[in-house]
Amino acid sequence: FADCGLNINPNADELSEIALASAESWKAFMPGVEPKVAMLSFSTMGSAKGDVPTKVQEAVKLANEKNPELALDGDLQLDAALVQSVADLKAPNSTVAGNANILVFPDLEAGNIGYKLVQRFGGAEAYGPILQGIAKPVNDLSRGCSADDIVGVVAITAVQAQMAE
Questions:
Q1: Cross-strand pairs, 48
Q2: Rounded Cα–Cα distance for residues 81 and 63 (Å)
Q3: What does the alpha-carbon distance between residue 101 and residue 106 come to, in Å, rounded to a whole number?
Q4: Residue 141 to residue 100: CA distance in whole angstroms
Q5: Domain coordinates in residue numbering, the chain
Q6: In which order are the strands placed within the sheet that holds 36-40?
Q7: Pairwise CA distance, residues 104 & 122, whole Å
Q8: Beta pairing, strands 71-76 & 36-40
Q9: Predicted local confidence at residue 57, as pLDDT
């Protein structure tokens, strides 16, 4: 999930950079598994109009220009990004829809609410924020984190430091 803890309302260029950095982080931690980036919105492939879908569509265009080899698509609603039967209806020509493994939220509000819903109601483990685009590994913790969360983020940061050497 990106960005869930730092950038309040990124513009299209910032959102594209968040997506690209997230794909690079995915590659570092998940070697051999292709990143598939879904740029999320309340719209799927322009099905709704508004500032958020427009921003996300522009971010997709910018990210694809910067890295045309990356599997990245949007704007996608969450269900179209994750559920193949929904993707087949809403985004049949997408190479990412139904198979996304990276979810880029349009703003901090959506991302933060989304990850906490999954963590608290879905029982998922949530680590971070994992900060990207900084010269040395630096990460953060939510004030509501547990001791296990601290151990997890320390382990991630240690691995990042080893990979940077």
A1: none
A2: 17
A3: 16
A4: 25
A5: 12-124, 127-165
A6: 71-76, 36-40, 102-104
A7: 19
A8: parallel
A9: 98
Q: Are 99 and 36 in contact (CB under 8 A)?
A: yes
CA 151 to each of CA 19, 30, 57, 136, 148: distance values in angstroms, whole numbers, following the listed order: 26, 20, 37, 19, 5
pLDDT of residue 104: 98
Query: pLDDT, tens digit, for every residue of 88-117?
Result: 999 999 999 999 999 999 999 999 999 889
CATH number of 12-124: 3.40.50.10750
Question: Minimal CA–CA distance to 148: which of 130, 125, 114?
Answer: 125
Please give the C-alpha separations between residue 61 and each of 38, 45, 53, 58, 165, in angstroms, as whole numbers: 13, 12, 12, 5, 33
When pLDDT is cut at 50, 70 and 90, the band that residue 134 belongs to is confident
- Residue 21: name the closest of 50, 10, 162, 97 by CA: 10
pLDDT tens sequence across 24-63: 999 988 999 999 999 999 999 999 999 999 999 999 999 9
pTM over 0.85: yes
* Residue 92 CA: distances (Å) to CA of 19, 35, 100, 110, 133: 22, 19, 14, 25, 33
